């Protein structure tokens, strides 16, 4: 199949040929700016391959490629996973590409897809095809049958999942490992047993299942004429001579030299005048050893092949050091980037952007590599890495690198300290080399040659020259020499501080000294005390594992039975469709222009250049909106397009409508905005307090006279708690498609709240809600981020209303993170008083919540006040709430909003009390637990409280006492590694008031099949599966009869948003009501004849005119605001590298009261996902704004860091309380989606305990110190207050 032109009419130089899922396509060279991802999704409509970040940081776009090895004379076929979002389609000439559609389908799934389904490895499912393809590629490269579970974990380094918590995905993939215990083998996979193929005896490569395909795309959409008109030329020279000729011809133009094209994910310097594909230049490939002491590697060599070459060469004498260099480069990005990105491209990027923290550059520099650069045929020159950094590369090309050998007495060590376990740029990366003499003078370690190389300090800082000179000929085992070297290093390491995203200069300086100290300890070896040698090397993460414990009630099946989500398989095969997947040839696309200043008046908006851009249909400004300029359904208006003032940077100010998303986004950047009355932005609670910038004050809580009680208390504590924000980071960014109809507008949306979208569109378009029908099939994650903020649907609807054509808006991740609010950040000031035993007497909390530019979403702040007692009793409380008004997007609900922070607040206070009294914090917590009969702050009486019992059970199952003793012993034995452990109990109240949801069930004759539509939104929480289980149970049929249809406003009018963890149970309640109606009618026909089959019975009902459909609308009216409470406890243990601030969660145990879980493994998945999201909130997800402009500068995957697969607890244990039916819940269940997140603050206190153990080494008084969240690696290290005198060899 070819695009809509005859391939015979196109010259050979005018197109490339690529095979996708077994079908050949000719692609014209006018597609020069079309990525493989765009070609798949927008031109072939193969939307199983998803798109999120467009910078190679998330993995949802992963595909498998096979292509001939371009090394001259090689006959090898290379098979790799790559990120299709970074790969230009024109660079895929003669490649064979496999997408998820080519791997399997729901009728003939691949074993990987079956394993993912059977292991409950999907939730929202948007990331799932990327995971499947990553594992597929891993198996394709494992032809020797040697894949281990550790290999599997290592291969999962480039894919983000926001929903599952990763554990079930890892479990699914480990079934293909040769060392997977057979007791854990995947059920029902014919060709796989414990990962071993029955036919070959080797680990499964996934080749035995029936083949799929060829998968022929139904239509090949042409490139728009507008895109063709601006497409830069694409050149592909076949040798160096042609390349240099092309370079001369292009002169000073902005040219992108393409090998892997991965650099675009870091620096996008478009627009480009031309692309030059270097992959056809054979001279740029090759790995050679021209002599016994030299290794040369061609510049086009991928990082994956470079690592392999280093490892192979390191087996030879003189090249052992290459193993250390390979270790560093192995930490660059992730597999799919390393698979295609070349080291030459990496070095070229470092040359252009000296601030780029290149791992390859550090490895090359410490290995004394020379970089050979060519400026013409037979014109090559060799440069050191330092010389190369200053080289003007215009007209020149990197040809190869030369790596010398080193004598055996050389010691190499490399380090990379990152914000998370991997797939991140370095805070600091470093490489150390020393030639040492340990034999000449016993007890001495004489340094004969040394190199100390550092990255990400400042653009031109490479070697610590002064320190190197100081160490030359010195005895590094001599303590004064070490101290002097550290002092020298501290003086010459002067980090730049011009990027607000970067770590502080203080941290980088301290970290540089710590890394050198680690190297020094390695050099001196046994001459240092064993306790101090605990610093050597880096934390090594062992293989992770998980345990899930739950009970079921077989008499109630399918309710309480563990079953995969209904949508799991179609998510695994890529057949599940999302609003972002909607593709139509006649559809227009729209993109936003966003403001760039956070507190400024708008003087002028000039769309002239944008309107002139080829392919632009319309530019919409606020005056063009046909209705009201307001997308909010709440009390304060929120403008669709800013009219007078930019309240925050990232506020939409124009909508550009064009023939494609790419054209719309490019043109949106051309809209010019002029400002006046520019004021410094207010960006946080401290700024707001200083400026007295507040929204109306919410009502607080007062019980007794807390100030008086505290004044007379035996023990008093006070302090401040500062908490950062968290982006929702749903894997599918927001999207909507609007279709004009004769009656009004039909909207396909990815919202969590259809009624809110319907109202916003009604306001903006000036038409009644009855003319607007909103449909949601599913959405790729939500977490509160897709409810109430209606810019996307509003823009799509207004554009469609004005153009009378379908319009799609699918915002980029960058714009999604810039324009939308997130979790509330907080500043809390507290005072508390206790008696001498630690019993709370009075608590004062002043809670400042950063509401952002609007207080429309004040609920989280109210929740932070309401739940701030958690499970603890005090005689007096004063909780004051302040809604800070800042120049940031209006912050909103984010999974467990307010409750998470509230529990952290009171736990923090009790930890402070415990430290003051020098008692175990768990003892203080137990002393203050609510007891049955106590009065809560709202006047209700405590009953059926289980917190003490659950905490006791958790301590027993988590082996708390023995592990605490082990932690103490570990800390005594290790000076620079410390462990900490902490337990956080929790109460979470369930509220149904103000919620209303529909359910409609239709039973069809001629088979008895059942269709259900309900008012909830499926976004990964398994609501559809739970509804199906409940309907099957209530009607007494098999789940196979039931399908869940999309949710629509016409059938589910006025439904509440899907949030707060209660939607599933209330929708199930509505479904139960429908089933009761239907059963009454059906039973009248059934009579006493219980032998009739379901099909026969339904046919009889039909013939007798029985109404086989039922509708229910649930809106509970309750006597008390709390329907029930759930109790839980979490125990977290960490291990800390004191010198770097890096840490691992060695084990996490949670015991949770889920009642009788409707669907246990779905609920386990919800719990694990909530926990890992909470760990991200408290640890790695650090949001930063530019203090001058107010812009969000952490708006992509390279600056904002959610957890990845190796950030989860190494030992991850989740248990549901057995035999705990909930009489107040729906079918005896309890909510689960949010509460587990609330206890993840236990990781903060565990880390704090580990830090305290280190501080006690210097200051024997175990005093309290404050910490802020997120507890980033940087913050943790700085809290350890490391000084040079501490860095020694012995006590």
From TrEMBL:
User: Matching SMART domains, A to Z?
Assistant: Ald_Xan_dh_C, CO_deh_flav_C
Entry binding sites for [2Fe-2S] cluster 2: 124, 127, 161, 163
In which residues is FAD bound?
Answer: 342-346, 416
**CDD domains, A to Z:** fer2
Q: What Pfam families has UniProt attached to this entry?
A: Ald_Xan_dh_C (PF01315), CO_deh_flav_C (PF03450), FAD_binding_5 (PF00941), Fer2 (PF00111), Fer2_2 (PF01799), MoCoBD_1 (PF02738), MoCoBD_2 (PF20256)
The name this protein carries in UniProt is Xanthine dehydrogenase
Organism of provenance: Hypsibius exemplaris
Q: Which GO terms describe its molecular function?
A: 2 iron, 2 sulfur cluster binding; FAD binding; iron ion binding; oxidoreductase activity
InterPro entries with a match to the protein in the record: 2Fe-2S-bd, 2Fe-2S-bd_dom_sf, 2Fe-2S_ferredoxin-like_sf, 2Fe-2S_ferredoxin-type, 2Fe2S_fd_BS, Ald_Oxase/Xan_DH_a/b, Ald_Oxase/Xan_DH_a/b_sf, Ald_Oxase/xanthine_DH-like
Cofactor(s) named in the record = FAD; Mo-molybdopterin; [2Fe-2S] cluster
Q: Does the keyword NAD apply?
A: yes
């Amino acid at each position: 199949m070819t695009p809509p032109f005859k391939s015979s009419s196109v010259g050979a130089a005018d197109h490339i040929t690529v095979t996708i899922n077994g079908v050949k396509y000719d692609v014209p060279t006018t597609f020069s700016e079309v990525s493989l991802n765009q070609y798949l999704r927008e031109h072939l409509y193969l939307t199983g391959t998803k798109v999120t970040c467009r910078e190679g940081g998330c993995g949802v776009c992963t595909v498998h490629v096979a292509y001939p090895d371009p090394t001259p004379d090689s006959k090898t076929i290379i098979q790799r996973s790559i990120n299709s979002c970074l790969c230009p389609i024109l660079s895929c000439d003669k490649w064979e590409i496999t997408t998820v559609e080519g791997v399997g389908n729901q009728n003939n799934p691949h074993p990987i897809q079956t394993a993912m389904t059977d292991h409950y490895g999907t939730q929202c499912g948007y990331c799932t095809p990327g995971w499947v393809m990553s594992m597929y590629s891993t198996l394709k490269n494992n032809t020797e049958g040697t894949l281990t579970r550790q290999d599997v974990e290592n291969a999962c380094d480039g894919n983000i999942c926001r929903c599952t918590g990763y554990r079930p995905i890892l479990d699914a993939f480990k079934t293909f490992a040769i060392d997977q215990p057979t007791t854990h083998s995947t059920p029902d996979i014919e060709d796989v047993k414990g990962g071993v193929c029955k036919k070959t005896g080797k680990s499964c490569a996934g080749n035995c299942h029936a083949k799929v395909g060829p998968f022929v795309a139904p239509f090949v959409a042409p490139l728009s004429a507008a895109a063709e008109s601006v497409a830069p030329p694409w050149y592909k020279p076949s040798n160096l001579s042609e390349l240099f000729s092309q370079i001369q011809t292009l002169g000073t133009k902005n040219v992108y030299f393409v090998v892997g094209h991965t650099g675009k994910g870091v620096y996008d310097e478009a627009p480009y005048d031309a692309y030059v594909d270097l992959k056809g230049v054979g001279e740029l490939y090759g790995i050679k050893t021209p002599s016994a002491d030299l290794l040369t590697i061609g510049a086009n060599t991928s990082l994956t092949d470079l690592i392999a070459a280093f490892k192979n060469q390191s087996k030879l004498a003189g090249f052992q050091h290459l193993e250390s260099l390979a270790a560093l480069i192995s930490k660059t990005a992730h597999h799919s980037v390393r698979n295609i990105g070349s080291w030459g491209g990496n070095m070229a990027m470092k040359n252009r952007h000296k601030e780029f923290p290149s791992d390859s550059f550090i490895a090359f520099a410490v290995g004394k590599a020379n970089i050979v650069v060519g400026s013409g045929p037979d014109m090559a020159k060799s440069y050191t890495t330092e010389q190369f950094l200053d080289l003007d590369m215009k007209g020149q090309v990197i040809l190869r690198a030369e790596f010398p050998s080193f004598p055996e007495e050389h010691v190499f060590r490399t380090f990379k300290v990152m914000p998370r376990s991997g797939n991140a740029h370095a805070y600091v990366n470093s490489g150390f080399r020393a030639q040492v003499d340990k034999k000449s003078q016993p007890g001495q370690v004489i340094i004969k040659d040394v190199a100390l190389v550092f990255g990400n300090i400042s653009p031109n800082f490479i070697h610590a020259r002064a320190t190197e000179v100081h160490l030359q000929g010195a005895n590094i085992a001599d303590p004064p020499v070490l101290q002097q070297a550290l002092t020298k290093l501290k003086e010459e390491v002067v980090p730049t501080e011009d990027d607000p995203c970067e770590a502080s200069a203080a941290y980088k300086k301290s970290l540089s000294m710590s890394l050198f100290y680690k190297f020094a300890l390695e050099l001196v070896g046994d001459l240092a005390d064993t306790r101090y040698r605990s610093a050597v090397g880096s934390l090594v993460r062992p293989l992770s594992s998980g345990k899930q414990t739950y009970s079921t009630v077989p008499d109630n099946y399918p309710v309480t039975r563990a079953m995969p989500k209904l949508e799991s398989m179609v998510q695994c095969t890529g057949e599940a469709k999302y609003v972002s997947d909607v593709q139509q040839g006649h559809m227009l696309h729209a993109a936003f222009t966003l403001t760039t200043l956070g507190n400024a008046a708008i003087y002028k908006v000039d769309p002239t250049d944008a309107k002139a851009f080829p392919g632009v249909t319309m530019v919409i400004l606020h005056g063009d909106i046909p209705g009201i300029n307001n997308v909010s359904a709440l009390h304060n208006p929120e403008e669709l397009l800013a009219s007078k003032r930019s309240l925050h940077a990232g506020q939409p100010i124009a909508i550009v409508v064009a023939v494609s998303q790419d054209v719309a986004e490019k043109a949106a950047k051309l809209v010019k905005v002029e400002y006046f009355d520019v004021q410094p932005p207010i960006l946080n609670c401290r700024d707001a307090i200083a400026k007295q910038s507040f929204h109306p004050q919410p009502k607080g809580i007062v019980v007794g006279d807390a100030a008086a009680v505290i004044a007379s208390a035996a023990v008093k504590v006070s302090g401040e708690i500062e908490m950062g924000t968290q982006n929702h980071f749903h894997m599918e960014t927001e999207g909507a498609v609007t279709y004009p109809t004769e009656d009004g507008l039909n909207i396909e949306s990815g919202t969590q709240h259809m009624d809110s979208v319907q109202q916003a569109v009604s306001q903006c378009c000036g038409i009644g809600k009855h003319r607007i029908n909103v449909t949601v099939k599913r959405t790729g994650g939500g977490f509160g981020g897709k409810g109430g903020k209606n810019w996307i649907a509003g823009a799509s609807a207004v554009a469609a209303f004005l153009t009378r054509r379908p319009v799609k808006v699918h915002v980029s991740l960058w714009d999604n993170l810039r324009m939308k609010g997130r979790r509330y950040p907080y500043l809390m000031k507290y005072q508390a008083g206790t008696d001498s035993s630690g019993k709370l007497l009075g608590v004062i909390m002043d809670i400042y919540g950063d509401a952002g530019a609007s207080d429309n979403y004040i609920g989280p702040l109210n929740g932070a006040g309401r739940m701030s007692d958690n499970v603890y009793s005090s005689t007096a409380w004063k909780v004051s709430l302040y809604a800070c008004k800042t120049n940031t997007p209006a912050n909103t609900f984010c999974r467990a909003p307010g409750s998470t922070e509230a529990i952290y607040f009171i736990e923090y206070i009790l930890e402070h009390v415990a430290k003051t009294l020098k008692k175990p914090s768990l003892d203080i917590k137990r002393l203050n637990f609510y007891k049955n009969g106590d009065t809560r702050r709202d006047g209700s009486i405590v009953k059926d409280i289980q917190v003490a019992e659950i905490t006791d059970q958790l301590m027993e199952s988590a082996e708390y006492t023995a592990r605490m003793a082990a932690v103490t012993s570990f800390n005594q034995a290790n000076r620079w590694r410390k462990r900490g452990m902490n337990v956080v109990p929790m109460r979470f109240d369930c509220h149904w008031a103000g919620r209303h949801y529909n359910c409609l069930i239709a039973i069809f004759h001629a088979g008895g099949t059942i269709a259900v539509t309900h008012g909830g939104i499926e976004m990964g929480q398994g609501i559809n599966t739970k509804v199906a289980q409940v309907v099957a149970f209530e009607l007494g049929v098999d789940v196979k009869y039931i399908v869940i249809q999309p949710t629509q406003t016409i059938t589910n009018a006025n439904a509440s948003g899907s949030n707060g963890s209660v939607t599933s149970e209330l929708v199930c309640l509505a479904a139960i009501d429908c089933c009761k109606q239907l059963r009454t009618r059906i039973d009248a026909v059934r009579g006493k004849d219980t032998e009739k089959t379901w099909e026969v019975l339904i046919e009889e009902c039909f013939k007798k005119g029985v109404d086989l459909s039922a509708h229910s609308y649930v809106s509970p009216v309750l006597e008390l605001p709390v329907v029930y409470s759930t109790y839980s406890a979490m125990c977290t243990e960490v291990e800390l590298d004191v010198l770097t601030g890096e840490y691992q969660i060695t084990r996490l145990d949670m015991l949770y009261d889920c009642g009788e879980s409707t669907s246990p493994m779905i609920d386990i998945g919800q719990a694990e996902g909530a926990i890992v999201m909470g760990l991200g909130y408290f640890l790695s997800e650090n949001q930063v704004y530019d203090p001058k402009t107010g812009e969000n500068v952490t708006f992509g995957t390279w600056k904002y860091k959610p957890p990845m697969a190796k950030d989860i607890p190494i030992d991850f244990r989740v248990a549901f309380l057995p035999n705990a039916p909930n009489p107040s819940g729906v079918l005896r269940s309890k909510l689960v989606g949010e509460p587990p997140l609330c206890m993840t603050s236990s990781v903060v206190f565990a880390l704090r305990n580990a830090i305290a153990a280190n501080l006690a080494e210097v200051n024997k008084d175990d005093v309290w110190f404050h910490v802020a969240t997120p507890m980033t690696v940087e913050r943790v290290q700085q809290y350890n207050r490391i000084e040079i005198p501490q860095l020694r060899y012995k006590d």
